[in-house]
Specification:
three-stranded antiparallel beta sheet; 9 helices; 13% strand; alpha+beta; 195 residues; 46% helix; 5 strands
Length: 195
């Protein structure tokens, strides 16, 4: 029975087999894992992925699609194109999973930009207790425990691969620089006024 299923699978074009897997995954799949699942050599699967990405971008025979194929977080996955985010968000509406609170977003930003960082360091930067927020971020899989400090035993936190996938980036180095977003402290001071 299994041989018959494998034979039928191998008769199906590689592009169709790859697309079938890409449609059902909910996190990026590594190239080697994808090749194993479609029973094809890694170079052939890579070439298929690259051809599909070009096709979805409208550089192939068909029109540009509302989704794109990206290599993210060490694997490949289909994503809605950024210009359709609002449309999709409106469609999903109240069905979206619970959003992160402002405190959670701020804590996550501190961890993302300062990692590896301890809970105490995050609390010092935010000037509030972050214990429950860190537990929430850990429970949602957005941050991870990296290591315990040898001297103090304090756990150092960093971002998880799941967060990278949610953000659609390959590494934390792809985060935008934060300095242009920070207040320079000049507001409230009039030029030329000295005391």
């Amino acid at each position: 029975m299994e041989d018959a299923v494998l034979e039928t699978t191998l008769e199906t074009p590689l592009t169709e087999r790859v697309e079938a897997i890409l449609l059902i995954i909910d996190e990026p799949i590594a190239l080697v894992a994808l090749a194993a699942s479609v029973h094809a050599p890694v170079p052939a699967v890579r070439q298929t992925l690259e051809s599909l990405a070009e096709d979805y971008d409208g550089r192939g025979r068909g029109p540009r699609r509302g989704f794109e194929l990206r290599e993210v977080g060490g694997g490949w996955r289909l994503y809605v194109r950024e210009e359709h985010d609002d449309l999709v968000a409106d469609f999903i509406g109240g069905q979206a999973p619970a959003r992160l609170s402002q405190a959670a977003l701020e804590t996550l930003a501190v961890i993302a930009y300062k990692q590896p960082v301890t809970r105490g360091q995050v609390a010092s930067i935010r000037a509030v207790n972050v214990d429950s927020v860190v537990r929430t971020l850990l429970a949602r899989g957005l941050i991870t425990e990296l290591f315990a400090d040898a001297e103090t035993g304090a756990i150092n936190y960093g971002t998880s691969d799941q967060l990278l996938q949610h953000l659609g980036i390959n590494s934390i180095d792809e985060l935008p620089p934060i300095s242009p977003l920070l207040d320079d402290g000049a507001d409230g001071f009039d030029e030329g006024v000295t005391r």
